[in-house]
Each structure stands twice: as C-alpha cells, then as structure tokens.
Design goal:
By secondary structure, the protein is of the alpha/beta class. It has 14 helices and 19 strands. Helix 1 runs antiparallel to helix 13, helix 5 runs parallel beside helix 10 and helix 5 packs antiparallel against helix 11. Pfam families: Nicastrin (PF05450).
C-alpha cells in the first residue's frame, strides 16, 4: 500500500511539473497578443498623379510605412520618417506649402475630411458657414496639391471614431516634443501598394441622341437643328472622390430632363416641332473640352452647318436668383440679342433673372474657357448657361472634393430646366412674346422632381474622371440607355485623350493603423519573461533532479586529453 501511495504521489508531481512549460507558453502568447493590437483599416484616396507634356504633377509616390505625427512640431521639422495627420479643420496651408515648395522631408501626408464631404451624403442645398469655410480652405489645398510636384505620398480619408481616437493619442505624445519612432512607440501607418503605373491610351467617350423634327411632305430641305450639350466628366485632387455634383452633374441632369420633356412633345406628330434636337453628353471637359471639339469635327458638315444654335449647360445647381448666359459673339449681334431676349422673358416669367456675359475668343490660342467656344471656333452660334461668372481655369473647379451632393439644390436645377425647355419651345413653335407655359407644373409636361433627384443622387456617388473610365463603364452605359429611352439614333464615340496628358493608376487604397509599443518596453518585457523562464527552469530541475544536477549544468566540463598515437 505504501509503495502504491508513493507511486501515485510521484505521478501527480510529474503531471503538475509537465504543466509548467505549458503555462509559461500561454503567458508568453498572451503577452505577445497584448503587444500586437489588431490593425484598424481605413479607406484612403490618393492624390492624383499626372504629367502634362512630360512635366510631373501631383503625388509621385503611393506606399506608406511610417509613424504618425501631428501638427505639434515646428515648421521645418524633419518629418521624413513620419506621416503627418492633418484634419481639414486644423489645416495650415503655409505649413503644407513649405514642405512642397522647399522639398522638405515628409514621410507622407494624410488629410482628414469632415463627413460632410463624403460623396453620396444627401442634404439640403444650403451649407453652414463653417462648411463654407471648409470648402474655401479645401479649394486652396487642392489647387496647391494638384498643380505642384509633391515628393511624398498624399492621401485623403474621412474622419471617424478610429481616426479621431488615433489623432488624440498622437497629439498627446507629440506634445512632449518627441517624434514617434521605433524606440518611443506610437502609431504606425502602413499602405502596401504597388508603384503607380501609366494608364495606357486613356479614352474619352461622347454620347449623342437625336430627336428629328417634322418635315413637311415632299420637303427635302435640311431642317434647322438646336443642340443641347453638357460635359459629364470631372477632375479633382482625388480621382476616386471626384463626383462633381454641381460641376457638371447638375448640367447632365438638366440635359436629361430636357431630353425627356421634348421626347414627349416629339412623340406625337401633331406637337413635333420643325427643328431637329441634338443632345450630346461630352467627355474631356476638364481638358480644354477636348471631347466637344472631337465630337463637333466628327459631325457631317451638312449637319454641323444646320445647327441654328447650341446651348451648353455648366454648373446650374447652386444659384438663387440669377443665371448667366456666356457668349463669344458680340452682345449687339442680332441673333444673340434674339436668343437672349427669349431666355430673359422666360426667366422673368419664372421669377428670376438672366444676364449676358461676353468674352471674345482668341482663334490663335487653342485654350478655350467655356464649352460653347468650341462651337464658336467652327462659326456655330452657341452659349453657355451657368451660375459661374468667370470660367474655370484648366484642371480646376471641375469636380473638386467639396463639390458634393450637399452643395447642390435640386430646385435650382429644376428652374434651370424650365428656363431651357420653355425658351427652346417658344423658339421652336414661334411663341416668343406670348404668355404660354408649355411645361406648366400642373400639366403632363411638368418637370419631374423625382427624376431630377434620382439622377443627381446617382451622379453624386459616381467618380467620373475620364482617364479612369473604361469604354463600357456602367455610368456610360446608363447614360447611353437613358438617351435611348428618350431620343433616337443614339451613338457613342470613343476618342483618345490628348497625348500631352499622362495619368497614373492607384487611386484608392486601404490604410492599416497599428498601435505599437516602444522598443524599451519590448526589451523590459523580454527581460522579465527571460528571468521568469530561468527561475521556472531552475525550480523544475531542483524539484525533479536535485540542486547538484542544476549546478552541474553550469559547470565547465573537464577537458579530455587526446592520446597521440
């Protein structure tokens, strides 16, 4: 019995001893898990990268692997191993300008935007004064980044709980005056993407629809044509965010609704006018209206010469009481006077005003300010209707980060649609000067607010930077189908973008945010774990083999003499 009891005790001791290494391993694993927090993943949007005639613009890099830093450091500090986190509400333009213009070292720049500017956010047509200030600040930042050669990665993201918490911690650490490093710990921001590649043969796509007028029986003469045109693509600092709700989503929506209204009139021979109506959605607007130029030159000469006049729609979604009609021909031109008078009378009936603005074109300069100038170059009478008093500069105000759904008032678009539709109808049917409303609100030809809102919401969620749109892009197919529903002989034209422009891919990525401990802490923990394992090992050896065996492990073994034969 005594022998059996001793045997059981030895067995229990052996089982207990065998658990020590397992417990030690578990403790090590728990410690490691606590040191390596799971990464927070945030969607980020890269600053555009492009060349004009070989001259580089935008951000030239895409990968990130640096610690986070805030604006707590003095201007000019060496942040070559840091990613500067810069909320728009704390933006210091001069600070950013110094790092770009003076080529100072910066590991990367992460700009945090308010959720207000997230594409697809639906709100009213009015913005708070705070957001108006943000829009102005963001416009300055975009201009600086888009037209500069930025020697570090730049990304945009939207503020959320994770980014706010990270930034608060980073500010606390930076307030001590010491940058986050592998020694001090902090947050590490990692974006692992391949180097940007050139987009081969970027294309621009024009879409054309046609409503033929009513020709008298036996009349073989060419009917006059009125063209309604809007450029649908955008350009902005971040291609993946460039939705251009106002510029020029509003113009596209207005064109589609005008086409829908006239399709009803033209579907009945009794109400079909003796004018052809030509609707064109053009691409390449930000690039000197290149798509419009190529579309016009592709038209049959007889067709082009039949155009009585063209109305181009540009940014008609954010105005209150006045729209501007921009023309290239002198205001005292008899036909310009007639067109303006027709629009002015309709605007007065609708309760607002239109004003005429003249800008002479320079034939020797290939640069055009407005879309209608491409028509004027071919001696076709044309005008641009817009809320803008001055034309946007090249690659500016064509879908900026602040041009989102909340900027646009759909009621403004509806008023613009009524202005264009009523003015064209009075011209087509000879009702000038008559108090007749063809598209009255209580009629079957009333403007459809739901249709306007639906298309505006869709465009406000869809980035449309031409070089990043494929020929079979869902949006292009949707626009083509919409024109097919309301017009005839719809055609699509694909053209190569001007070779002087070169664009690079990699517009969107995932940012991994890691909270890392300092090396000092790691070494201290390693020392504690090592000491614990040594003590544990010594205890196990003493209890199982005795103190003599433990000491013998650390003795130097006696040297052996080698016998020489």
């Amino acid at each position: 019995m005594a022998e059996e009891k001793k045997s059981k005790q030895r067995h229990r001791v052996m089982v207990f001893e065998s658990m020590y290494p397992i417990l030690a391993l578990m403790l090590i694993l728990v410690a490691c898990v606590e040191l390596c927090d799971a990464a927070t993943v945030v969607d980020v949007y890269r600053l555009i990268q492009y060349d004009i005639s070989g001259v580089p613009f935008g951000s030239r890099f895409s990968s990130l692997n640096h610690h986070a830093a805030s604006l707590s450091f003095q201007r000019g500090a060496d942040l070559s191993r840091s990613v500067l986190i810069l909320p728009l509400r704390e933006l210091d333009i001069a600070f950013v300008q110094d790092y770009i213009s003076q080529k100072q070292s910066l590991g990367g720049l992460l700009i945090l935007l308010p959720q207000t500017f997230r594409p697809g956010n639906v709100g009213g047509g009015s913005l708070s004064s705070e957001n108006d200030g943000f829009r102005s600040l963001l416009g300055q930042l975009e201009k600086l980044l888009v037209h500069g050669n930025v020697p570090f990665p730049v990304y945009f993201a939207f503020e959320n709980e994770e980014t706010d918490a990270m930034l608060a911690d980073v500010k606390k650490n930076d307030a001590l005056g010491q940058q986050a490093t592998a020694t001090t710990g902090g947050y590490k921001l990692v974006i692992s993407v391949s180097e940007p590649r050139k987009i081969a043969s970027p294309t621009i796509t024009n879409i054309q629809g046609w409503l033929p007028g009513l020709r008298a029986e036996g009349d073989s003469s060419q009917l006059p044509t009125i063209a309604v045109v809007a450029s649908y693509d955008t350009f902005g600092a971040a291609p993946a965010l460039s939705v251009g709700s106002d510029s020029n989503g509003s113009g596209v929506v207005a064109l589609l609704e005008v086409a829908r209204l006239f399709s009803v009139l033209y579907s009945n021979p009794k109400t079909r006018g003796k004018y052809n109506l030509l609707f064109a959605l053009t691409s390449g607007g930000p690039y000197n209206y290149e798509g419009t130029q190529k579309w016009l030159k592709s038209l049959d000469q007889r067709m082009r010469e039949s155009i009585d006049y063209a109305i181009c729609l540009n940014s008609v979604g954010s105005w209150d009481s006045e729209l501007l009609i921009h023309v290239s021909k002198p205001p005292d031109n008899a036909y310009i006077k007639q067109i303006f008078e027709g629009f002015s009378n309709v605007a007065e009936d609708l309760g607002f005003q239109v004003a005429l603005k003249h800008k002479k074109i320079n034939i020797s300069n290939s640069r055009v300010a407005w879309e209608h100038e491409q028509f004027s170059r071919l001696r076709v009478t044309a005008a641009t209707i817009s809320e803008l008093s001055t034309p946007p500069e090249l690659l500016e105000n064509a879908g900026s980060l602040s041009d989102t759904r909340q900027l646009v008032n759909e009621d403004a678009i509806i008023k613009g649609v009524k202005l264009v539709a009523e003015s064209l109808a009075k011209h087509i049917y000879g009702h000038q000067g008559k108090e007749i409303k063809i598209f009255a609100d209580d009629s079957s030809l009333a403007v459809n607010p739901f249709y306007v809102r639906s298309w505006l919401d869709l465009l406000s969620q869809t980035p449309r930077v031409a070089p990043f749109l494929s020929k079979n892009e869902p949006l292009i197919m949707a626009l083509k189908k919409e024109l097919e529903d309301y017009t005839a002989e719809v055609s699509v034209q694909h053209e190569s973008l001007d070779g002087s422009f070169t664009f690079y891919d990699s517009t969107k990525a995932s940012l991994n945010i890691y909270q890392v401990a300092s090396v000092t802490f790691d070494l201290l923990l390693l020392l504690v774990l090592g000491s614990y394992l040594i003590v544990l090992f010594s205890f196990l050896v003493i209890t199982t083999r005795g103190l003599d065996d433990l000491i013998s492990l650390f003795r130097r073994p006696p040297s052996r003499k080698v016998k020489m034969g």
